[in-house]
Write a structure and sequence with these properties.
The complex is a heterodimer of chains A (about 270) and B (about 270).
Chain A lengths: L12 H4 L6 E12 L2 E12 L3 E6 L5 H8 L7 E6 L2 E2 L5 H8 L2 E4 L11 H12 L5 H14 L15 H13 L5 E5 L7 H17 L3 E6 L2 H7 L2 E6 L2 E6 L1 H5 L4 H8 L5
Parallel strand pairs in A: 3-8, 3-9, 6-7, 7-8
Antiparallel strand pairs in A: 1-2, 1-4, 4-5, 9-10
Chain B lengths: L1 H10 L5 H26 L6 H12 L3 H25 L6 H39 L2 H7 L4 H40 L3 H10 L3 H27 L4 H34 L1
Classes of the chains: A alpha/beta (about 270), B mainly alpha (about 270).
């Protein structure tokens, strides 16, 4: 399926011309191994305010590990990650919890709470982090995010009654309810049909504009990369092999990058 | 055949004794850290009161049926089985005392705990295990909430506080079962039965049973939560967590029973 919507052409002017760049995530020389398996092998990456960076890579290349380290769910072996000016590895649990309120994390599996309805899923982070809100304010916030993701009708449904695409959207809505400054998407289009994928891509762009978020999008879907990424970074052998606009990255003749492009349906 | 054996060996390499000992002590240290974290989080606000009540309802109210059935049958069967031995000495009038002592001191706490280990322990292990492997616990963590407080503290407290209530209920139902049997055979009145049943029960008996139930409840809760919270290996891991929750809880309950009985007997 050809994709004409190249997001890197729509990059904010300031970012495009290296002006007034404010880094919101800075990753320096990041290493992570699981036993003998070296997953990240010196990753360096910057995310600037207002942009969407897509991290592409093959399955098992360490993309999900990278954003789990950013969110403080995993600890790096070496290197450091600075998010909104805070070194993630040096924060106490309480400080990390406060920082996480400014980060939205959309899981590959959506990770909706099985035992709770859509309304309860959305209320869960809100009522625990903003305890002064009254019932009406909570209801309004839930209805607003559901409206933003286009699923107002599902408010009383259970996660088991939702389709894969709907679950992804509700997962995104659950993070948006706290109005995060940064969004981390783990395979947002993984396991769903191509048409719903395009809807999710539009939603990611809508979130960027409406909520003024900066995002890291982890994917191996080139359509998603092209539609949502202001900048693309490709992870090969645990390192960022190349980064830049979508076209710049895939003009590369490096075998690891070329192979990735050649085997994708977008060729 | 030879190939198959090689494959199996390759898939599951045997651990050396040193590795097994090391894994055992690492596991013990992890449990120690888990209990320490529980003790800290249980007294740290915010308190998940609503979830605690929900868990108490799930664990307590929904266990009443099976506790009633087993308590009642235990009361009847214990009375029936004890009668011939007492009858040989012409001492069937001691049946109410015997049954009440056996029920309150040993049978009710133990039966309630074993049923709870099977019903509640496996449920906690499976529920937290599946939440873990489907990243629901991670999702709670990244949304700035404390999953340990919401999932572990509420469940452990709920089962710890619910079990003594279930134990008292099981004792009551067991005594009623016993009364039915005694009333049928010896035509003893209810007032007389209750008088005889409680004649030899002391405060220490009731206190020890309540204390035992608290300990068993805590054991079931912590074991289920620990194994569920640390689940790995996907759905296979969930099954293992549920199964191990029951087996380990039951094993620990028997060990605790032996220790508590020794201590209480020394105090008597």
């Amino acid at each position: 399926m050809p994709c004409d919507e190249d997001k890197s052409r729509m990059m904010p002017e300031a970012i495009l011309h290296n002006e007034a760049k404010e880094s919101v995530i800075s990753i320096k020389s990041l290493y992570k191994s699981f036993g003998e398996n070296k997953v990240l092998n010196g990753v360096n990456l910057e995310l600037y305010k207002g942009e969407n960076v897509v991290v592409l890579g093959r399955s098992g290349s360490g993309k999900s590990v990278l954003i789990k380290i950013i969110a403080g769910l995993l600890k790096p072996d070496e290197g450091n990650v600075t998010v909104l000016g805070e070194r993630v590895d040096l924060l106490s649990l309480r400080e990390l919890q406060e920082l996480r309120l400014r980060i939205g994390f959309s899981f590959q599996s959506s990770a909706l709470y099985d035992g709770m309805s859509v309304r309860e899923n959305l209320e869960f982070p809100l009522v625990r982090n903003q305890r002064k809100l009254n019932r009406k304010q909570v209801n309004d916030a839930v209805e607003q995010v559901l409206h933003d993701v286009g699923l107002s009708q599902t408010i009383n449904q259970m996660p088991s009654e939702l389709s894969g695409g709907q679950k992804k959207r509700i997962g995104i809505a659950r993070t948006l309810i706290l109005k995060p400054e940064i969004m981390l998407y783990d395979e947002p289009t993984g396991g769903i049909d191509p048409i719903t994928c395009v809807d999710i891509n539009h939603l990611i762009n809508k979130v960027q504009q409406q909520y003024n978020t900066s995002s890291i999008i982890i994917t191996h879907d080139l359509t998603c990369a092209k539609m949502t990424g202001n900048r693309v970074a490709i992870l090969v052998d645990g390192k960022i092999a190349k980064e830049g606009s979508f076209d710049d990255v895939f003009e590369s003749q490096e075998p690891g990058i070329k192979a990735f492009y050649n085997y994708n349906f977008i060729k | 055949m030879q190939n198959n054996q090689n494959t199996i060996q390759a898939k599951a390499p045997q651990k050396s004794i040193t590795e097994r000992i090391s894994t055992f002590f690492t596991g013990l240290y992890d449990i120690y850290k888990f209990i320490l974290r529980f003790s800290r989080e249980a007294f740290t606000p915010p308190y998940e009161f609503k979830e605690f009540i929900r868990q108490c309802f799930n664990m307590g109210y929904r266990s009443l049926g099976i506790i009633s059935l087993t308590g009642f049958i235990t009361g009847i069967v214990f009375t029936k089985q004890s009668r011939p031995s007492l009858a040989d000495f012409g001492a069937t009038s001691w049946l109410p005392s015997l049954v009440s002592l056996a029920l309150i001191r040993a049978l009710a706490p133990l039966i309630t705990a074993l049923i709870a280990a099977g019903k509640i322990g496996s449920n906690i292990g499976a529920e937290l295990g599946s939440m873990n492997v489907t990243e629901q616990i991670d999702a709670m963590e990244v949304s700035g909430t404390n999953p340990f407080n919401f999932l572990v503290v509420t469940r452990v407290l709920a089962v710890t506080l619910t079990l003594p209530i279930l134990m008292m209920y099981a004792s009551f139902v067991g005594l009623m079962g016993s009364y039915l049997n005694i009333n049928q055979n010896e035509l003893t009145s209810f007032t007389s039965y209750i008088h005889d049943a409680f004649a030899r029960i002391t405060f220490l008996d009731i206190f020890a049973s309540l204390f035992k139930s608290l300990v068993y409840g805590f054991t079931i809760g912590i074991t289920g939560c620990f194994l569920g919270y640390k689940t790995t290996q996907g759905t296979v891991g969930v099954g293992k967590a549920a199964n191990s929750s029951v087996v380990i809880s039951m094993f620990l309950i028997f060990i605790e029973e032996i220790i508590i009985v020794q201590v209480v007997n020394a105090m008597r």
